[in-house]
Prior knowledge:
Blueprint: H1 2-18, E1 36-38, E2 49-55, E3 61-66, E4 68-70, E5 73-75, E6 79-84, E7 99-108, E8 112-114, E9 120-124, E10 128-133, E11 137-141, H2 153-166, H3 174-181, E12 186-191, E13 205-210, E14 218-227, E15 232-240, H4 244-248, H5 256-262, H6 271-280, H7 287-298, E16 304-305, H8 318-326, E17 328-329, H9 331-344, E18 349-355, E19 359-360, E20 367-370, E21 374-382, E22 386-390
Parallel strand pairs: 16-17
Antiparallel strand pairs: 1-5, 2-7, 2-20, 3-18, 4-5, 6-10, 7-15, 8-14, 9-15, 10-14, 11-13, 12-13, 18-21, 19-20, 21-22
Amino acid sequence: WDYGRSPIARIEDDFARLFSGIASQKDLAGRFFGDSLPFQGKISFSGDVVLHAQSEYPSYWMSRTYSEYTSQGWLAGDTREVNVGPDGPPPPPQETAKRVPVVQNVQVNFDTDVLWVGGSVDWISHDAVALTLAPKAFTIDITTAGKDDELPEEIQSVAAELREILNPLRTAFAESEIARALPDDLTLINVNPDAGYSDRTSINTVRIAYKEPATPDVVGWKFSRGLKEEEIYSMRSFVSRASIAELKEAPTEYAGTITSQYLQLPSSLPQRVRDLAAEVTVDAETPMDKALALQGYLRGDDFEYSQDIDKPPRNRDGVDNFLFDTKVGYSDYFASAMTVMLRSVGVPARMAAGYAPGESQEGTPFRAVRDSDSHGWTQAYFPGHGWIDFEPTSAW
């Protein structure tokens, strides 16, 4: 049943996300986050409690993260499913420097197959699926360097070397020559994919990809069979307790699997966005300094929080429109702006969506997470530590 209706489920997710600007009603089962996170206009949420959450260390409840930025919003990227469970395979390993294990219990107030997590999951009480981001693949045009500016810098240098080897073609064993030329973290997918292997007089295109990383990039979760209303699931997660000083000392050498995904920006991004980011971080010495500077800038008096806004014009970049024209928006806009500006100054970052920690309830160990706690925030990557949450939205 799940397999047969999966195409419909994807449409339902995107439909729900697209129309989440409509005011929530009593029977609305929370907010949904599908494969895309578009810039929207006016939104409205109810005060209904969607989750009851218990955690020794209150954290964001992440539903999905997004890796690819476009002028109209975010895309989730290609994912692979990893089945995990209490009696089955454990969750994928994650970076745990300065992270502590905490037990978390979450009660859902509606039927759902969405799994909200706080931190890096180490064990979960129900059968679930971890969504991991597939490594980036690239098609290199051997005949010309005209499209190289669309490739990451490290792939551009690979492309230049492959042209020297393959143009003109000097051997019938091109695959071996290419494999020897590639860095250790890259692998060959195929050559001349359109022409096939019958034409070996020349090679026009080469497709390569990053190898699977030792630490998979977990970007989302879901239950294998879904939960019923008022059912509780438990997790053991690692949450970061790293200090600002410790994060300032984090390494700055990033793997290609990280930079290829999380430094991506479209060529259409206006230059003034990059210039503003450079200006705000001009005195920042470390990635953490840059993150704090951009977070502080967006939380400043120049920007206003509001859910009653217009959608960006169709021909405008959403972040550019927010930073320079309206300066008014809700969390999706603040977090998008910080994520894009971090990328433009060389710090890997991604957009995260889900719920804020919620409010503690007197006399109970649970926090009430409401429909109105629906939230977007920024995560920046620090080698060894993994993904660290930042809050650029001034109203939160």
